[in-house]
Specification:
Length: 242
């Protein structure tokens, strides 16, 4: 069972929350199609900003789009200009008021989508797939993940016949519902066809009741972190003077 079911869908309502939160009513299908359009647009528009997930919440007149990213500075832009542009573009797509929140991913090595995208980008720039995968596995295990599995499928190294290979380190208990497993599939577009890169990352086990929000453990980014950094940098100097 664990091999056949999407590990994220398998844990919804148990230790994971939904990425679209709204009540559908009669035009349920239209809202799903609109959510898909928003996600595709954001991923295409911010392809260089390491976007992991796009969480959409709706009220009667407002659509709240929450973007989780490893590089919030690119999305925010100078003085928040880029966010305002993105807001206007999403307004045209939805025809409603849009609010954008940005959350920073502090450890991108533990995010399955970002790891898979990194491997796919390296393969596209003609780096050996084995080297890219082994480097990604080593980086993830260095960040104290309990396990990682990477599967790559397609015409590997331009071979005539497509095949699949998988690399694994640590443990990935797919049938254990309390296991916090992140999963992603990203495609690499090479000159000899598409390669599919699948990544499973085991972050640990969740005991007791957990908040069912995809934003657990992430920090909100508003582009005003300069003062905090300056304050932190002064503290060690004061100690030395004493």
């Amino acid at each position: 069972m664990g091999q056949k079911t999407n590990p994220i869908g398998n844990r919804l309502g148990i230790i994971r929350g939904w990425e679209s939160n709204w009540y559908g009513g009669r035009n349920y299908g239209d809202k799903i199609a609109e959510d898909d359009k928003i996600r595709k647009y954001v991923h295409a528009r911010l392809s260089k900003a390491s976007v992991s997930s796009v969480i959409i919440e709706r009220t009667l007149r407002l659509v709240t789009v929450t973007i989780t990213t490893a590089r919030p500075g690119i999305i925010i832009g100078k003085g928040g200009q880029e966010v305002d542009k993105l807001k206007e573009e999403l307004k045209k797509i939805t025809g409603k008021e849009v609010q954008i929140n940005i959350f920073e991913i502090k450890r991108p090595e533990l995010d399955a989508r970002l790891v898979a995208a990194s491997i796919a980008r390296q393969i596209e720039s003609r780096i050996s797939y084995r080297r890219a995968i082994k480097m990604a596995i080593a980086a993830t295990m260095r960040m104290n993940a309990e396990g990682i599995k990477v599967q790559i499928s397609g015409r590997l190294n331009g071979a005539e016949m497509a095949r699949s290979e998988h690399y694994k380190e640590g443990r990935i208990p797919l049938s254990t519902f309390r296991a916090d497993i992140d999963y992603a599939l990203v495609e690499a577009h090479t000159t000899y066809g598409r390669l599919g890169v699948k990544v499973w990352i085991m972050k640990g086990e969740v005991y007791g009741k957990r908040e069912l929000s995809p934003l657990v453990g992430l920090s909100k980014k508003q582009g005003k972190g300069g003062n905090e950094r300056a304050g932190n940098s002064k503290r060690p100097q004061n100690r030395r003077r004493k």
